[in-house]
Structure formats: C-alpha cells, structure tokens
C-alpha cells in the first residue's frame, strides 16, 4: 500500500543546505565554565555529643530532669508532620553513658583518633494520652515522686515514679486534668512544706496550682488555687526560691505575684484583690511593655522579681518580706530589725530598675545562686549580665552570643565555678558556656566551651531547651531537629 500524498508543502521537514553543513563556527570565547550551582557543596558536620536519643519523630519541645536522680530525663514533643499531630514523650536514663577520657596532646594531630562513637539511648517509658504536642514537662519537688506533662490539648497528665530493689525505675499513670485550652508552662513548687505541688499557666491567661496525692483515689490531683486576672496568654511563671510566692507574666504586659499559701495575707501584705502581693499591668505607664512579657525569674533571696519582654525591656520589681516574725519589740536591736522588716514589706510592687540593653525581645532570665548576677537572653542573639548588688549595672553584654539567632535559654551553673559560669542555647543549634567574671564584652573573651551536634542556622533546627543538673558536668538538650544529645563538660 502506497504512502498517502502530502497536501501541504509546509509539512515537509526543513533540510540543512549542503553549503551550510560545511561551514565552520569559530570558538572565540573558549570553554564556558559550568554554573557554580552545579558544583557539589561541601558540608562539615560536627557532633560533640557522647550519647543521643532519637526516638522522637518530630521537634522536641520540652525537657525535664529528675531532682534527685539526674540521670533520669523526660522529653516531650509532637509526633508526625500535621498541625494536629498527637503529642508523645519519653523517659530515658543517661547513667549507662561513659564519659570520654582526656586524650594526650599527641592525639591533637590526628582528628580521627578523637572521634569516638556516641552511645544510643533507649526509652524506659513512653508518655502518651495527649492529642496535641507536649510542650512542657516537670518533676515534682522535693523528691521527684511524680512526672507531670502539659500539652497544647490543655491536658495535664501525672505519672508516679517507683524504683524497685534493683534500682530500676518505672512509671504509672495517676490521673489527668483538662481545665484550659492549652498549657504553656509548668513550674514545681520548691518548698518542702508543700511537696508535689505544681503550677501551670494557660493560653487563656489563667493560672492553676495543683497538689498531687496518689493515695487519694477520689481526687489525686487537687486544685489548690486558680487565678484569672491575666487578660491574655500567660507566657511564663516562676516560684520564689522559698516557695512563698508564684510570679506570672502575660502577653497583656501584666505581672502578678500570687500569695498562694496565704502567708502574706496573714500579715496584711496583700493587694485589695486579696490574691496578690504585686499587681502591675500595662496601664501603668512606668511598667507597661508594648508587645507583652515573656520571661520571669525571682532572685535567690526572694526579695525582687525580674520580668522581660518585647523590645528588650527588663523591669525589676520589689517583693514584700513575709518571713520576719512579728513579735513584741523589747529592745533597741529588735526595734531596728522591725523597722528593716517594715521597709522590706513596703517595697512590694515598687519598680526598682528599668533596663534596656538588648534590641529585641527577652526570652529567658536567670539569677546566679552564688553571685549577685542576673542574665538575660534575647531574640537579637545577645546575652546581657547585670550586677544586682550595684543598682543592676550592666556587667557584660555579649552581643553575638548566638550570632543573629535567638537565645532560647540561659541558666547559671549552681554547683560549678562559684556561680560565675553561665550556660546558654540558641536557634543556631549550639550550646555554649560562658565565664562572666570581669567586664569583658566580646564572645571570644567570655566563651569557655561550646558543643555542636544539632542542626541550626534556621534550617529546621536549633536547641529548644536543656538541663544540666546542679553540677553542670553533663548537658542534655532538646533539639528542634527531633534529637536529644548528651554533652560532657
């Protein structure tokens, strides 16, 4: 069968003319280099950890350490990629991790000799029952009898710790409560007079205090107090070290210091509302912080509270003294002491200092337990250290502590360095330790050591928190990359 005839000459393919085929094209530019985007990118990975825990399938938002068995670590986060991914947490033990020996100087010339395998940690217990991310965890004080988890689902779940004859820990679910839309933070009461007491702040601005008693099967989670003065999300809370007061702050720029146990009320030191010893809101122009408050801490002597918020603003507010015995005056010396107590009580709610060294929001505050120091970490990547004994004079401003990335947490090391050592973490994925003695301000002159291993630089990484015990000899981190790392100081 013959091929069909073409009706249109335009359908005939164009052919190269024979003379054109013989024409040579001169190369005047030489070889053209490949686009730099096609060149392989060299990435240097550094992992300083001695152990890791990678059971989380998503970001690790919360981390807590047992107060008497510091090797017991609890972590919590989300599982899955969805916005409504159920929360999940784990408890693991770091005691099997062996520290790395100090290598002789001769090993410095051979980096491969210094690389030792990191220990993989396994979960002892899985925290379940939340329908949204676990974003806060805490062990109760003073003995860590209970582990409490708080989630973005508003649930507060409690687990009791038991240790058998072989020193093997186990956890059993006790009860749960759901009174709020979202739990923002948890803080255990440090007073031994009120053991197993926990406070929480919620997204609706409410503040709740629970006491846990597993022997009371009818009501194991007893509501001690509930407060509703904040008009926006309650962003942070801190007990005074003696457990007398609970200080909370909010996005509405308010600070309330609650008289949880009625000790101040017994001495007529509460405000007109009958609940607080300090009530400051954004309506007070001297105190107002446009953009809200996001960090709070009480000094070791429970004499004043520091709050930090948007724009790098820090306010220092006095607290009343309620621990002075009100006994009859019988001598000049006792009269002098009584006048001192009255002066201390009168300063409750007084704004003692207004600080603004950093250029962006204050995310974290920490007092040294041994030195008169207050440290503040900012979204601008800097750390400021103030001398509380000298009218809160600026002692040090480390402007690029975590480069341009937000500082997530700062915490002084309680049992190491006489209170001068400060640990910090940031969204750059790095943990650093600083010596804040002297008046130097550069990162180079302050830095003692740094630990790397998490992703950072805004690439789905960063360190969202850490614990370091009282000695600071080991630092355990919560990574936005879904990994928990153990570093050795």
TrEMBL record:
**Keywords for this protein:** Repeat, WD repeat
Key word Kinase present in the record?
A: no
UniProt keyword annotation of Signal present: no
Annotated WD repeat ranges: 127-162, 227-260, 355-396
Instruction: Report residue spans for region: Disordered.
Output: 1-46
Task: Give me the segments passing through the membrane.
Answer: none
* InterPro entries (alphabetical): WD40/YVTN_repeat-like_dom_sf (IPR015943), WD40_repeat_CS (IPR019775), WD40_repeat_dom_sf (IPR036322), WD40_rpt (IPR001680), WD_repeat_multifunction (IPR051179)
Classification via PANTHER family = ANGIO-ASSOCIATED MIGRATORY CELL PROTEIN, MITOCHONDRIAL DIVISION PROTEIN 1-RELATED
- Stated name of the protein: Ribosome biogenesis protein Sqt1
Which source organism? Daldinia eschscholtzii
Which taxonomic lineage is given here?
Eukaryota, Fungi, Dikarya, Ascomycota, Pezizomycotina
């Amino acid at each position: 069968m013959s091929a069909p005839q073409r009706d249109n000459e335009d359908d005939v393919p164009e052919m190269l003319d024979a003379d054109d085929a013989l024409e040579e094209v001169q190369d005047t530019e030489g070889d053209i280099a490949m686009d730099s985007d096609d060149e392989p990118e060299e990435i240097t990975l550094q992992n300083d950890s001695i152990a890791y825990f990678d059971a989380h399938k998503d970001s690790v938002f919360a981390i807590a350490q047992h107060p008497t068995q510091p090797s017991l670590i609890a972590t919590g986060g989300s599982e899955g990629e969805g916005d409504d991914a159920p929360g999940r947490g784990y408890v693991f033990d770091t005691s099997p991790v062996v520290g790395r020996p100090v290598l002789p100087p001769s090993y410095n010339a051979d980096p491969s000799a210094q690389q030792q395998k990191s220990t993989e940690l396994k979960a002892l217990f899985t925290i379940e029952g939340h329908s949204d991310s676990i974003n806060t965890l805490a062990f109760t004080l003073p003995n860590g009898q209970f582990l409490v988890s708080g989630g973005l689902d508003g649930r507060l779940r409690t687990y009791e710790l038991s240790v058998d004859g072989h020193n093997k820990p186990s956890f059993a679910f006790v009860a749960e409560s759901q009174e709020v839309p979202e739990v923002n933070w948890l803080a255990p009461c440090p007073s031994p007079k009120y053991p197993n007491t926990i406070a929480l702040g919620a997204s609706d601005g409410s503040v709740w205090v629970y006491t846990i008693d597993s022997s009371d099967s009818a009501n194991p989670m007893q509501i001690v107090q509930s407060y509703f003065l904040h008009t926006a999300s309650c962003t942070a809370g801190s007990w005074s070290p003696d457990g007398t007061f609970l200080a909370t702050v909010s996005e509405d720029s308010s600070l309330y210091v609650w008289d949880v146990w009625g000790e101040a009320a017994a001495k007529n030191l509460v405000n007109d509302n009958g609940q607080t010893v300090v009530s400051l809101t954004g309506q007070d122009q001297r105190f107002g912080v446009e953009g809200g408050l996001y960090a709070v801490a009480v000094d070791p002597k429970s004499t004043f509270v520091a709050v930090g918020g948007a724009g790098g603003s820090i306010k220092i507010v006095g607290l009343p003294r309620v621990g002075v015995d009100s006994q009859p005056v019988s001598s000049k010396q006792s009269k002098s002491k009584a006048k001192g107590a009255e002066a201390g009580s009168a300063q409750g709610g007084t704004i003692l200092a207004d600080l603004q060294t950093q250029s962006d929001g204050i995310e974290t505050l920490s007092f040294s337990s041994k030195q008169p120091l207050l440290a503040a970490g900012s979204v601008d990547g800097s750390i400021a250290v103030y001398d509380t004994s000298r009218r809160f004079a600026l002692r040090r401003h480390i402007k690029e502590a975590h480069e341009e990335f937000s500082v997530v947490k700062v915490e002084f090391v309680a049992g190491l360095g006489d209170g001068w050592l400060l640990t910090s973490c940031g969204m750059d994925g790095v943990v650093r330790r600083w010596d804040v003695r002297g008046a130097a301000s550069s990162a180079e002159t302050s830095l003692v050591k740094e630990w790397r291993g998490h992703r950072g630089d805004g690439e789905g990484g960063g360190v969202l928190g850490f614990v370091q015990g009282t000695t600071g000899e080991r630092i355990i981190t919560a990574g936005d990359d879904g990994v928990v790392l153990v570093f050795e100081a």
